[in-house]
Amino acid sequence: MGSARKKKNPRKHYKVLHEVGRGTFGVVCKAIKKKTGEEVAIKNIKLVHKIHEGVSTSAIDEIRIMQELHHPNVLSIHEVFSPREGTLSLVLDFIPMDMEMIIKAKDMTSDKYVPMPSEDIKAYMQMFLRGINACHQNFVLHRDLKPANLLLSANGVLKLCDFGLARTYGSPNAKFSPQAVTLWYRPLEMLLGADRYGPAVDMWGVGCIFAEMLLRNPLFPTGRGATDVDQVCQIVRCMGAPTERNWPGFDQLPILLKFQQIPPTPLARVIPAAPKDALDLLDKLLSYDPNKRISAEEALKHEYFRNAPAPASTAQIADHISVLIKKPSSQVSSTLPSSGALALPARPPS
Amino acid sequence: MTEEQGDGLTIAVFEGTTHQRYWIFTQERLAELRAEANETACADVNEWTNKLRRAGSEEQQPDVVLGPSPGKKARTECEESGVQVDCITLQEEQIIQDYYLEGVFSLSNKLKLPANVETTAITFYKRFYLYCSAMDYHPKDIMFTVLWVACKVEHYPSRYINAQKVVLNENSREFSFDAPAFADHGNIPIEHLLRLEQVLLQVLKYHLMVHHPFRPLRGFLEMWTKRSDSMKLADDVKSKIEEKATKLLRDWMKSDILLILHPSEIALCALRHTCAKAKMEAAFDMFLKDAIGSSAESVGRVYEAIEGNLAAHKQRLKGEQLKTEATRINAKLQGCSNPEKERSHPQFALLEEIKRKEREAAKEAKNLRIAQEQREQEMRLLGIDGGR
Predict the structure, then answer these.
(1) Are A77 and A206 found together in one domain?
(2) Where does a domain end: B149, B174, B203?
(3) What is the CATH number of the domain that holds B260?
(4) CB distance from B374 to chain A under 8 Å?
(5) Do the Cβ atoms of B195 and A1 come within 8 Å?
(6) Chain B residues in contact with A52 (beta carbon < 8 A)
């Protein structure tokens, strides 16, 4: 019978609590799955019929990619449905804590950073790399890695999220926009206009975020309204100018800049507190030449993860971050820390 | 650096994908699903048509073609009213779907769409009609919709324009207003297309990753060219074989094999077929054994399955014959399209009105029941329970 074929509107399976975020795409709400009591986030994507685009390509990409990725360190998509004509709803895990909050967490009373033990950082890195590796093995580039896109569940599990810019690669003619990736985490080859790139672009971002966890500050921060060239300068001031030796063929990229011969600053001076094995891994992640940059799979085999101290267990991490969740004093300030706090060495103006 | 990740990996990577978990069927299951879709649609059309008739008889006679439906069992409430709509049969369903599948191909050809867009569009089309009937959504509209969505999914440049009609423009290779390339195929209003886009996504269960056989094909050829011995494939031979095998694969996609077999199996069979034509069987068998570790027999078995499917496909109507039949079925479809499914259906509004009334009646009944229960409870509380 006709009516027997009718399914109940899936929207009714959820009790919507309140709004948690708002973007250009639409609104994210916290909700409860009535059957299980599970907390979920519902991302509502409004379809723009006015400009006759229908479901936007970024929504299509996000749905397409998240439906395929099933990994403990990748945010899962529970369900997609259309509550009414003109709207799509994505039901995702609800996770209120992200890496940016952990990196910036300060104790209000003493105004000191809440410490991030090196075991925790190691565990974060391991989960992060496993998530990225899962993406890359499925031919998915994330293309928007930044601390805010690494979520931490209350059980201490790190989950990659936000696949709105992600793309699948592997088709022979696919050219990509060099404009993806938040500026601070964008690799030099993209800044110089490369439109054919692979998983290595994500690995640069992994390196930047690794350094940020160790430093408690972004590695290559630039100010509001900074341009690609500003970002290039920021990177080169720290890492030195690319040369034909450390990056053969870099001058073949679409954007050719004349670099002063700035020597690289040893990473040990940039991040003095970091252990040697961590610096070695970081160095391999921040290789200028994308072909030499370490892959997620190789990085997971790096001695950093085998050496003491062992990575913290998820239970330990859950315990550590529960302090941040409970204490309202460890609120994250929305302004960026001033660059004066950076542990970067003074360098000559370029 | 290149993005070419041509390695045989795809085979392992295919495990756990939505393609593998939800969209690979047996031949029998495909037949079942198609029969179910047709049956359900028939039941729907009959139910709604009769409801409309009853509602319409109060005001005016609805404009529906009525007649006996040979071979279709009456299983709806139309039995009571004794009216049965002449629905299209399963066989007619297949013919009309085939006709517009050819339309997807010819459009894709005219627009020179790349193989991945074409294959995704065809796969969407075939997946869609496993769960819907041509009576629910007209294949002509779905033909446009699958191309539209496939272009988005595969990131094919398609900045579409216009207010009224969406067509694919041959020169700019875009969806745009009224192109001559489209004259044979007609147009679709944009609002209609966008509504169908959502319907399509829903029927596809929002599974939008389609694995094509082209990547494993490149992967196998890559492996073959990287061999260090005398059986190494020369680069010029490789590109020739790749071109031929790709063409063959595009042709194979007309059949159901992408709903039955894994993309890498299909790729290997296309490679085998191409090599056989080029008198390279021995070299292929060697490569198969060494590099992939499978025997010629195991590929042979898959190949037989493909052959069987292709042979069945070849039996179907073609060319003018297909067109004549399709025209006839199209006329028939006018009388048995499902009024519930599409807003542009002449009786959609009336149907919505009936549904609204039904909902209100149900609500009313529910309220009555609640009121009744409340009264009873109050009476119990007041101790008048059982007093009567």
Answers:
(1) no
(2) B203
(3) 1.10.472.10
(4) no
(5) no
(6) 160-163, 166, 190, 194
- Inter-chain CB proximity A60 and B16 less than 8 Å: no
For A99, A210, B101, the CA distances from A310, given in Å and listed in that order, are: 20, 17, 58
Q: B-chain residues within 8 Å CB-CB of A196?
A: 1-3
The 10s digit of each residue's pLDDT in B59-109 is 544 444 444 444 344 444 444 555 788 899 999 999 999 999 998 998 888
pTM of the model as a whole: 0.81
B interface test, pick of A67, A165, A177, A188 with most B CB neighbours within 10 Å: A67
Catalytic residue among A61, A98, A120, A144: A144
Q: In this complex, which of A68, A88, A198 lies closest to B3 when CB atoms are compared?
A: A198
Tell me, yes or no, whether B93 and B156 share the same domain: yes
C-alpha B359: how far from chain center: 32
Active site residue A289: no
CB B286 within 8 A of CB B223: no
* CATH code of the domain containing A62: 3.30.200.20
Q: Which domain holds residue A198?
A: 97-324
Whether A276 shows a pLDDT value over 90: the answer reads yes
Task: Give the three-class secondary structure for B83.
Answer: coil
B residues 106-125 lying closer than 8 A (beta carbon) to A: 114, 116
* Strands laid side by side in the A87-93 sheet: A14-22, A26-33, A39-46, A87-93, A77-81
Burial readout A325-338 (b: 16 or more C-beta within 10 A, e: otherwise): eeeeebeeeeeebe
CA-CA distance, A329 to A110, in Å (whole number)?
A: 10
Sign of CA dihedral B133, B137, B141, B147: negative
> What's the pLDDT score for residue A179?
62
The number of distinct structural domains making up chain A is 2
Nearest CA among B194, B191, B163 for reference residue B177: B163
CB-nearest partner of B1 from A49, A60, A197: A197
Option in B47, B116, B208 nearest A60 (CB): B208
Token pair belonging to A307: 């050496």
Angle in degrees, 0-180, between the axes of helices B115-131 and B139-153, rounded to the nearest 10: 130
Please state, for a pLDDT cut of 70, what percent of chain B lies above it: 79
Cis peptide before A309 (omega within 30 of 0): yes
Helix, strand, or coil (residue B31):
helix
Which ipTM was obtained for this model?
0.79
* pLDDT > 50? residue A347: no
CA B50 – CA B66 distance, rounded (Å):
11
Which residue stretches of chain B have pLDDT < 70?
Answer: 1-12, 56-82, 157-187, 230, 384-388
CA pair distance A45, B315, nearest whole angstrom: 45
